[in-house]
Amino acid sequence: MRDGLDDSARVWYEPRFPQEYRPDIVAYIPGLGLLIYEVKDWSLDRIVQINPNQWQVRCGASVKDQRSPYQQAREYYHKLNPSLQRQTSLINSSGHNKGKVKIPIAPAVIFPNIKKSAFIESGYDKALDTDRCLFNDDLKAIAAEDEPKRTRDTLKKHFKAWWRHDALSAEELAILKDELHPEITSVQKDKGGKEKVIILDPYVL
Description:
This protein is an alpha+beta fold. The protein is 25% helix and 25% strand. The protein has a five-stranded mixed sheet. It has a three-stranded antiparallel sheet with strand order 4-5-6. Residues 184-188 and 197-205 have low confidence and may be disordered.
């Protein structure tokens, strides 16, 4: 996932959301937004049938009901968004998106073992829009990409609503990290009494 992005991108693996929810991958790309990914390593032949909310997937000799992976990713978003809304420095104070988080946020799904063409041929795109997914061939293209803009254009399709916005400042990014990894952050006060978020682990980027 990190391949194909420029050095300004930040990728977190299994961050801890409110109520111990842990999405597989969260990526912040300045100027693009925040992406929340659910990763499913299923092969296409394991999927029996799907609808927008419920999937049936083979697990060994049995077939199990599974919640739609896209709905799982959406739930992660709905768990995180209220926490971000409480951080006033992350909220637009004016303009068309006044009162909303400063950056667009998109839930999406990664299928590392399924090709997009095969998914479409199976008719599953009628239940899950392929623009909300990254498939095996998408990941290979991203890994081989030497032009970050093309990768950004691919990921931009995940957003149902997207708007132009400024990249988060260093302070705002630290607050975002605090929401994703509260266990490695500390809130300290400067001499003037202003609170500042300190990242305790510099390797969590």
